[in-house]
Structures are given as structure tokens and as C-alpha cells.
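So, is this right?
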Amino acid sequence: MNSEILKLEAPYNIIYAGGRIGRHIATMTVWEDGELGIFEASQYAMIDEGGELAAGALVTEASLCDCRVVCNERDPRVDLRSLARLVKYDFEQEEPVEFAYLWERLSLLGVKVIWDKVREEDGQLVKDDEGQPIDENVYEISITFEGGHKHLFASSYVSSGFYFYARGSVEEVYKELHYQHMIYESMFHDDYLLIKFKTLDSWEQHIIDQLNARNEYYEPAPDEDNIF
């Protein structure tokens, strides 16, 4: 077995690597030599995760081709759709780490979100088309449902800016969507994020109504504990 480390130069890409977030500071290549040349070659990222973690960790949980670039530290910003794609990719892994951890590690590396709506410009509140100040980042998320009461799948579209995914019974799906809802809004509390839900699947409208009723900006439904 042969190995070689290629040290990369700053500014580094900030990457998602096997459920870990860090600056991609080097790449390790390992291979076997054979009579016909090199075979079984693989590459793995070495990262600086920032914060309390020492730089130079070798990520063996995923090969380099399975890593995803979030942004470059020269401009450590990520737009909402790219962030949603990252969350979706994380959900597709065998052991997803979920958004709260992802954003905690991204924040340690100084990553910021590029919002669709600009609240302030040159110290002045930006106004909408009707002349009203924009004081909230309000996003309406469409949820689609598949399956039945005991085996239900729910997901949103990456294009909405926030990715939601849940599977299980109706009760389990509701609880997971509600949990993800709370995490998103708590992570971006300082950015005045407000998420509302809708669906074209009228047969699961009660889940949407309950998610919206749980939002602090809504009045609770009178029978909210008996909707299932």
C-alpha cells in the first residue's frame, strides 16, 4: 500500500465530508502497485474543522468524490438553495447528522447565509413593493406526502430554500417536521426567520395546519392534541 499527501493552498474550500464540516486543507491518496500499474486508488480529504478541534483530521468516512463543497473561505457565504441541497444530501446518508450540527460547524468557520430578502441597506430598512419595511425573512414551504397513515413520507423542494424530510407514521412525521421547523428557526433567530407551510395534498392538510399552529406567530388550534 502506497500513500501520498497533497497539501492544498489557502484560501480553502469549506466542505461536507462524511458528515463532517471543515476546510479542505490536504488530500491523501492511497493506492496499490501491480504488474499492470496502479490499482485500487482512493482519495480522502484532510480537514480543519475549526473551533476546539485540531486541524489535519483525515476523513475516512467518505472518499473525496463523495464530499461536497459548501463555499470557499475567501467568500464564506452560502445561498439558501445550496444549503438546502446540502441538507438533502446529508439526509441521504446512512447516518445523517442533521442541520443543527451542520450549521454549528459552519458557523464556527464563519459561514453566513445569503438571504433572498435584504432587510437593511446602508443602515436603512429596505421596503417591499407596497412600501412596507421588510422585517422578517418569511418563507412558505410546500410539503408533499406519499403513502398512508402508518407509512408516510414527507419532503419539501430544495428550491424552496429549506429542506424538510420525514418518514414513519403520521404522528412520527408530524413530530419530525415540527422538530426540523424549530431547529431552522432557532438557528436563524437573529435573522428573523419565519417558516410557514402549505401542501397540495389536501388529505394531509391537518399536518400542515398543526405545523403552522405550533408556530409562535400563529394562534394554537383548539383541538391541536387530537388531530391524529
Notes: The helical segments are 80-91, 98-108, 170-187, 205-214. The chain has four helices and 14 strands.
